């Protein structure tokens, strides 16, 4: 086998592994804090974690360390609520969530920085900065379609390279 053929075979195998990995990875969940990211000491806060599809278990983490799990006892369900309180200065910190489906774990959500204060915080209905809306299942389907189309184009290009290599031999 020539060096050129080995290179092409290696590229095809690597691309196949990458496409397979992308198809099997889970989308990133979203997280938000209710009533917000600044909580008066002694009050409670809810972290609402949402996956784009059904999940088996959700995990809440603080500074990338396990805090608690919620199993999905009533499928189909794509949201878990973690209530913490009454909060104190030890509760403040960086929170993320991730979910499990089958044997796979999703990537961690964005990080929310919870602050606990000694004073009353006015309750506002304005959106909390840094908290995004929950992506819909439809948007993930669109991006998966784009990925598959791109993979198809790459396979066509590799097919053309292999065809040219075979033709030139």
Automatic annotation (TrEMBL):
InterPro entries documented for this protein: Ig-like_dom, Ig-like_dom_sf, Ig-like_fold, Ig-like_Receptors_ImmuneReg
Identify this protein by name: Ig-like domain-containing protein
Q: Where is the Ig-like domain?
A: 27-113
Query: Which Gene3D superfamilies would you find in this protein's record?
Result: Immunoglobulins
Q: Where is the signal peptide?
A: 1-21
GO BP, one annotated term: immune response-regulating signaling pathway
Say which species the protein is native to: Myodes glareolus (Bank vole)
Query: Which segments does the entry list as coiled coil?
Result: none
């Amino acid at each position: 086998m020539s060096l050129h053929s080995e290179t092409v075979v290696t590229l095809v195998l690597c691309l196949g592994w990458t496409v397979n990995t992308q198809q099997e990875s889970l989308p990133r969940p979203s997280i938000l804090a209710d009533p917000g990211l600044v909580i008066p000491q002694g009050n409670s806060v809810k972290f609402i974690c949402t996956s784009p599809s059904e999940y088996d278990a959700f995990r809440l983490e603080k500074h990338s360390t396990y805090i608690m799990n919620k199993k999905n006892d009533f499928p189909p369900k794509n949201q878990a609520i973690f209530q913490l309180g009454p909060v104190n200065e030890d509760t403040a910190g960086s929170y993320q969530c991730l979910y499990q489906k089958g044997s796979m774990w999703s990537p961690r959500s964005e990080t929310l920085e919870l602050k606990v204060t000694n004073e009353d915080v006015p309750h506002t209905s304005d959106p909390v900065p840094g908290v995004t809306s929950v992506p819909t299942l439809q948007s993930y389907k669109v991006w998966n379609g784009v990925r598959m189309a791109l993979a198809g184009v790459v396979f066509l290009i590799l097919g053309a390279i292999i065809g040219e290599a075979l033709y030139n031999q």
